Amino acid sequence: MLEFEQPLKKMTDEIKRLQEEDRQSELIDHSKEIAKLQYMYEMKAKEIYSNLQPWHRVQLARVLERPTIKDYIPQIFEHFIALEGDRRFGADYAMYGGIAKINNQAVTVIGQLRGKNTKDNLHHNFGMAHPEGYRKALRLMKQANKFNRPIITFVDTKGAFPGKAAEERGQSEAIATNLVEMAGLNVPIITIVIGEGGSGGALGIAVSNEVYMLENSTYSVISPEGAAALLWKDAKKANLAAEKMAITAQDVKSLNVIDGIIEEPQGGAHCDIEATAQSIKEVIVQFMKRYEGRSAEEIKSDRYYKFRQIGEFTE
């Protein structure tokens, strides 16, 4: 449980203790105390989650239990088939994707994939893709373009992998190529930021017609720790950096960078994955309805002006 959630943990622990005492003895009845504590818990939870600070949302975006693309796919799509490899170097397990159906329409699904424990995170490189991951994503997007399939991307990364091997294999070139190629695709593209959306690593699969963020996700050019280290030479001031950087969904929406915010259940997406997935699915379905029947030129033009408007709005 996160630090700002500690008051809730104390109440939860006390409720469990009283319930255990009731189970162990027929002479003890804590029902009134439990009911009072449950009411207090609900009020406190409402107070905490309706007044989250930027750093709190960063912490929720990073929580290990937070759903990944693999959690959402079975809830949103049917008949998903994963596809691997960039046809140049090899498989990158930080980038996940394939073909699927949503409401019986074929689509291509792509996104970063992190792990939920140390072993998984090492396997998926903490969701930080190498160049082959971005080339794989582009391969799948070109395939979607060829067969006229809408593209859905899920962003969940601290950034592209910054290691020596990635640079040697052309990390910046791979991301830059994706930006150019995505801008010219003939099919509609929607992006959902489901966790952290970090730097070019996020943007490499996010040049889309519409971009949405989950309520407690983040989208930024650098991590709060990285910004704090640059600005104040102290990564421990990450909470202060988070306040200044405008990285929350609410901030990014106010800057006209995204098209909408998808609400999460109280406590975060991990508290009710099915409800969160349903909310995401509704946004995707409505997006596809809006772009149904549009010509390739209209789709590309909409994408172009979306990003032009961002620049004009923020100048």
Automatic annotation (TrEMBL):
Name of this chain's protein: Acetyl-coenzyme A carboxylase carboxyl transferase subunit alpha
Pathway listed: Lipid metabolism; malonyl-CoA biosynthesis; malonyl-CoA from acetyl-CoA: step 1/1
HAMAP family hit by this protein: AcetylCoA_CT_alpha
Functional summary from the UniProt entry: Component of the acetyl coenzyme A carboxylase (ACC) complex. First, biotin carboxylase catalyzes the carboxylation of biotin on its carrier protein (BCCP) and then the CO(2) group is transferred by the carboxyltransferase to acetyl-CoA to form malonyl-CoA.
E.C. number: 2.1.3.15
GO CC term, one of those recorded: acetyl-CoA carboxylase complex
Organism listed in the record: Abyssicoccus albus
Coiled-coil blocks: 1-28
Taxonomy of the source species: Bacteria, Bacillati, Bacillota, Bacilli, Bacillales
Keywords: ATP-binding, Coiled coil, Cytoplasm, Fatty acid biosynthesis, Fatty acid metabolism, Lipid biosynthesis, Lipid metabolism, Nucleotide-binding, Transferase
Matches recorded under InterPro entries: Acetyl_CoA_COase_a_su, ClpP/crotonase-like_dom_sf, COA_CT_C
Catalysis performed (reactions): N(6)-carboxybiotinyl-L-lysyl-[protein] + acetyl-CoA = N(6)-biotinyl-L-lysyl-[protein] + malonyl-CoA
One GO molecular-function entry: acetyl-CoA carboxylase activity
Subcellular localization, as worded in the UniProt entry: Cytoplasm
Subunit structure: Acetyl-CoA carboxylase is a heterohexamer composed of biotin carboxyl carrier protein (AccB), biotin carboxylase (AccC) and two subunits each of ACCase subunit alpha (AccA) and ACCase subunit beta (AccD).
GO terms under biological process: fatty acid biosynthetic process; malonyl-CoA biosynthetic process
A matching Pfam family: ACCA
UniProt family annotation: Belongs to the AccA family.
Residue ranges of every copy of the CoA carboxyltransferase C-terminal domain listed in the record: 27-290
